[in-house]
Records
---
Amino acid sequence: MPVLNNISVATLKLMDVAELMILFGELEAPTIQEMNGEYAAVLLKQPTFAATIMGYSAIYNPVMPGFWLCKAFRPVSETQGRGYNTFQHLGRVVQRYPMLTLIAASRYDGKPAYQLVYRAYQSLCGTIHMVDEIRKVSDGVYLGIGTYGFTDAQRRIPLPFLLTGSVGAYRGDMGQLRKRFNLNKELPAHSM
């Protein structure tokens, strides 16, 4: 990854989705142990105007859920972790949308990616089968590809975001486990 270490955050913010996906394919997954703490989060360019409007209205909404600040993670074992998203909502900082984390094969290229599986917990993100994939650009800089949907085709539309940090400590586990959660149904067939 030595050549990739020269890509700046400013450059990532200028890249279109096709460029970000090419870069994503060249990156490696961070380890479960590496992803520990809160990471500042921002959306990158989205694939369509409609996706941009939906993305921004979903995570930068003063009514609900608030303004997206970060994603946070902690290792639970050698193979899995936990996490949540943090928002600024009506003058307070709140955690929402818990997730299970693990290393699994990417739905885009079959190579390992740090995966955030929201379906493991009760939340709107779990209901819409959201799964994010993360790979490391350089120390403290991570490219994420969000997905959601009820079909394989819907879940292949890449929704890029950027994480930087860590910028703070993990605040604590949250969320209620979903009954009858099946990890095999959330990841591509070649993941398991």
Note: DSSP finds five helices and nine strands in the chain.
---
Amino acid sequence: MYNLDLQTILHAFEHYPASELELSCASFTIKIKRNSGENLPHVQTAEITKAETVEHRKTQDTSIITSPIVGTFYLTPAPDAPPHVQVGDAVDSGSVICTIEAMKMMNQLEAEYPCEIVRVLAGQGSMVEFGQPLFEVKRR
């Protein structure tokens, strides 16, 4: 059995002339394709540390909180539970604002600063990409 992490696989794919790569096992399948005419894979990668869980983009008087990982977006901690946050909620720094499921692991995203939820930009149960806007917020 091979023990490879995703970064190692992507690094190898970047330096190998293949145009596609598919890896499968019992619990998941990974498919990587190069953009036509380019030598880079069609996958974004990033080193994510605990201190860098949320990226902020300034838009007028609001900020955008983006997804730190690829996964499934949930506003609720469980199917029958109330949402972590709703539009108009005041959120303290460190409060959980959503859950993102990635590879069967539930990752709770916390607010890095006090804010008010202005808009929820992702749908319940939708797939989100790294860097995709999730919430528009107003700093308090």
Note: The first strand starts at residue 20 and ends at 24.
---
Amino acid sequence: MAVDTQTIKQLRDETGAGVMNAKKALEESNGDMQKAKEILIKKGIEKAEKKSSREIKAGRVFSYIHGEGRVGALVKIGCETDFVAKNEEFQELGKNVSMQVAAMTPENVDELLEQDYIKDPGKKIKDLVTDVIAKTGENVTIDDIAVFSI
């Protein structure tokens, strides 16, 4: 099935997928936008699983201080290269995860990954990580978290 460029653009805007991936997903789903999104999610999870054994050599520490400084969080997120650590998607992940940690005060990384995302309860934090892995093509891990409060 031939897919028009406007539909491809819409899917890209909604998912962040690349042009060819969006086109292939729409062709595979016969133009059904919802099925195409599901296909992209499935492919993203498969990519993430394949990359999970790759070595983490770079990353960043992110912080979030809430309100008047009474609660703060630090989050260490790793990736394979410094190039991805500077990437906009990676930076956004760090900002959102550190905010999540300050708001929900998980005991450890495993608990954090299973939490519903505060900005979108339909997603879990592990889904945010998987999305970044799919978009950047590198292994990304949340390595450590800390919460401080007064």
Note: Strands lie at 58-66, 71-79, 116-117, 120-124, 140-149.
